TrEMBL record:
It comes from the Eukaryota. Residues 1-16 form the signal peptide. InterPro entries: Aspartic_peptidase_A1, Aspartic_peptidase_AS, Aspartic_peptidase_N, PEPTIDASE_A1, Peptidase_aspartic_dom_sf. SUPFAM superfamilies: Acid proteases. This is pepsin A. Keywords: Aspartyl protease, Digestion, Disulfide bond, Hydrolase, Protease, Signal.
Amino acid sequence: MKWAVVVCAMVALSECLIQVPLRKGKSARENLEEQGLWEEFRLKYPYNPMAKFDQSFAVGNEGMTNDADLSYYGIISIGTPPQSFKVIFDSGSSNLWVPSIYCNSAACNNHKKFNPGASSTYRNNGGALSIRYGTGSMTGFLGYDTVRVGGLPVTNQIFGMSESEAPFMQHMIADGILGLAYPRLSASGATPVFDNMMKEGLVNQDLFSVYLSSNSQQGSVVTFGGVDPNHYSGPISWIPLSNELVTVNGQVVACQGGCQAIVDTGTSLIVGPQSSINNINQMVGATNQNGDYLVNCNSIAQLPDVTFHIHGQEFTIPGSAYVRQSQYYGCRTGFSNGGDSLWILGDVFIRQYYSIFDRAQNMVGLAKAR
């Protein structure tokens, strides 16, 4: 797989779009289902999608969720000479971390590990990093090194190296996580990678955009410094994500008075308050079985659209996009319970709408994905 593509309008570095291809691999859930371990896993490591957005869930420096359905990852490298890692590009968290050679947890032993001693540009930070999950944690330490994203070096980037990881992480295909959110969400005051990219003048515009392919393993991409018109059609709707309504067949089924939503590449599903999610799933004919909302696989083409009304614009998700088929568990919707009022528009939504995160204007742009 190619590491990156750099698209330049001119020779000048500032005119470049930095693109990192994302690959759609098997999710942790798919691997666990194949091994017959999913039921045991889901009971042992209950999923709380709101943990990283609500510090009341966190017991360490940063809260993060164990989303077993995440499947998109890209490749970055750290150090000199480069050591490569598969990471989830997560717009809902802010830290970069990968396993280290000092970690002997099962989750580290089947992933790539960073060796600080093998990098001539590594500098020790001396600080500790702790990320708490619902039933375990990742603990480690902080250091500085050159991080290459899209082939371009981000120098003196602070990042975390794990010394222990929760057992469930051994089922993730990615080695670590690269957070793309604001610095205020960062653990230990670590400056996020994209903030350093902006500071070092590596991007032409202070924004990044994400395209997720619907079915193909390849074709997904995160673009730093601009937007790629090859991946969307029609106008871009610029939105301060604050209020939305949700309708099915023209009937309001959630957010009657408006509610707050976050577009998050680090969440696989569309997540909302239980009563609202129950309403949506009921309207599309889904039944709850152990937390999964199942529909008849033969009726996907007849399922109603679900429309999100955001900032005066309509964003429609058809049944073919919000239903996922499992060889072992049938067809389930991509609408999941979580939290009291906040909504998370995860990969189910982003696959339909090219998403642009504009840090300069504090806006999110959405356009119909190609």
